[in-house]
Design brief:
alpha+beta; 19% helix; 3-stranded antiparallel beta sheet; CNF1/YfiH-like putative cysteine hydrolases; binds zinc ion
């Protein structure tokens, strides 16, 4: 399924919305999740931390938690945000996957960390891929393209300037890790050509313009995110 735009301007995953024990949203340039979520100092790594390890200046690119009322978030402007939920163990994750993090396999590493930490099984997970740069706009030089040969072995054009599909790259990693395709929401809008609703580093090159995505386990008394 595709993620959908809510009346208030967030993007929401239909699959994650079916899970009443969590709240989530992909923010845009015009709508941000309620503040209070944990956020790492993102460095395009494959480093996954528990929300409890998060603090000022702590570096990493994915956060996981099972703690009720604790929201984990990522910030992006073209990079791929992934929100993950395990309905069996009631655990969640937020992942920042730019091209470097994608190459480093951060989606699969987060799934492995969920398994180690909470006992999550990949076949139980629900995943949503948020607004990010599409294959329509993500043109890269051969020095970047060639690195994707392992992910796109069928491509014969990676020795020249070409376009890459980072969502597809992450989707393949999720499927390879064992997440069923029917449990993944994708086809989000392109942040670069999708209009002023989105921030895009490639389009605008403005420092500090980032969109936030967040997910958390809620209790019945927890505030709603949207
Ligand atoms: Zn585009």
């Amino acid at each position: 399924m595709s993620i959908v735009r809510s009346p208030r301007g967030y993007y929401i995953s239909p699959l994650l919305s079916r899970l009443p024990w969590l709240e989530h949203s992909f923010g845009t340039a015009i709508a941000a999740p309620s503040p209070g979520y944990r956020l790492l100092h993102q460095v395009h790594s494959a480093k996954v931390l528990e929300a409890r390890q998060c603090g000022p200046g702590v570096e990493g690119d994915a956060l996981i938690t099972q703690d009720c009322g604790v929201f984990v978030g990522v910030k992006t402007a073209d990079c791929v945000p992934l929100l993950i939920a395990d309905p069996v163990h009631r655990a969640v994750a937020a992942v920042h996957a730019g091209w470097r993090g994608t190459l480093a396999g951060i989606a699969a590493i987060t799934i492995a960390r969920l398994a180690e930490t909470y006992g999550s099984q990949p076949e139980d997970l629900t995943v949503a891929i948020g607004p990010s740069i599409g294959v329509c706009c993500f043109e890269v030089g051969p020095e970047v393209a060639i690195e994707f040969g392992g992910i796109f072995p069928e491509r014969g054009d990676l020795l020249e300037k070409t376009r890459l599909d980072l969502r597809e790259a992450n989707l393949r990693q999720l499927l390879k890790a064992g997440v069923p395709g029917s449990q993944i929401d994708t086809d989000p809008p392109c942040t670069c050509c999708g209009g002023a609703e989105f921030y895009s580093w490639r389009r605008d090159r403005i420092q500090g313009q980032r969109m936030f995505a967040a997910i958390g386990v809620i209790s019945p008394s927890a505030p709603r995110m949207r």
